[in-house]
Amino acid sequence: MSHTLTVQWTIEPQTAPRPLLACSRCGGHRPFLCSDKTRLNANGCRLDAWLIYRCAVCEDTWNRPIFERRNVANVDPDALAALQGNDPAWIRQVAFDIEGLRQYTDRIEDFADCHVERRVLSGTTDCARLEILLVATGASSLRVDRLLSTELAVSRARLTRFEADGLLTLLPEARKGLQRPIRHGSRIVLDLAAEDDRAEIAERARGAS
Questions:
Q1: CA–CA separation, 165 vs 142, rounded Å?
Q2: What integer pLDDT is reported at residue 2 of this predicted model?
Q3: CA atoms within 13 A on the CB side of 177
Q4: Rounded to the nearest 5°, which phi and psi values hold at 184?
Q5: Where are the alpha helices (DSSP H) in 107-143?
Q6: What does DSSP say about strands 61-71 and 46-55: parallel, antiparallel, or unpaired?
Q7: What is the pTM of this model?
Q8: Helices (H), 60-118
């Protein structure tokens, strides 16, 4: 039996966070959705740039500032090209920047739906130990226990027992780590040596059907 199967899970959030803002049309706070469109305005040699959001109820707009009164010479050329071309990848990066959104409101809807892409780094499913390295492409409220339960088909109660028995380690360590949102760079180690279904768990970890 090989000692360790090491896999990398790249986790891509599917729904961008939505700020809850006062809507002038609705007369109350409403979630605003990213429209995937930017607005760029030039005033002489200075630029203003915004990412456009729309109210989920009435479609009123909110322009999320990207930068304001920025000298064109101080704007990153790649960012400027992305703004001019409404580059989807660049817009997605800004839309998922939840910390940037917190500059404008503390009321934000954050979603846990994610796509997980797996890659085997070393080892086989004939293993006694499973190591999962997390690569998060954006902020997410998806909890570690929910991720593992869904992707490994292991109940959250069983994961809790693993942790209590010292069979599951989450690095870096954190109090109630299983209940915390996933974080880029985390490492999860599972000791499966005594588990009768260790091969099945390993198969699911590596993404085999």
A1: 24
A2: 60
A3: 17
A4: -60, 135
A5: none
A6: antiparallel
A7: 0.74
A8: 77-85, 88-95, 98-101
Q: What is the pLDDT of residues 77-86, one digit of tens each?
A: 999 999 999 9
**Distance, CA of 17 to CA of 33 (rounded, Å):** 8
Cα gap 18→45, rounded to integer Å: 32
Spatial CA neighbour of 151 closest among 11, 16, 14, 6: 11
Which token pair is 45? 């040699």
pLDDT at residue 176 in the model: 83
Distances (CA, A) of 163 to 145, 158, 178, 190: 11, 9, 9, 9
Provide the CB-side half-sphere exposure for 46 (13 A, CA): 6
Beta bridge partners of 122: 6
Distance CA 57, CA 74 (A): 37
- Give the rounded percent of residues in the chain with a pLDDT score beyond 70: 98
Q: What is the C-alpha to C-alpha distance for residues 134 and 114, in angstroms, rounded to an integer?
A: 13
Tens digit of pLDDT for each residue in 104-161? 998 999 888 899 999 999 999 899 999 999 999 877 888 999 999 999 999 999 999 9
> Residue length, the chain?
209
d(CA 15, CA 98): 12
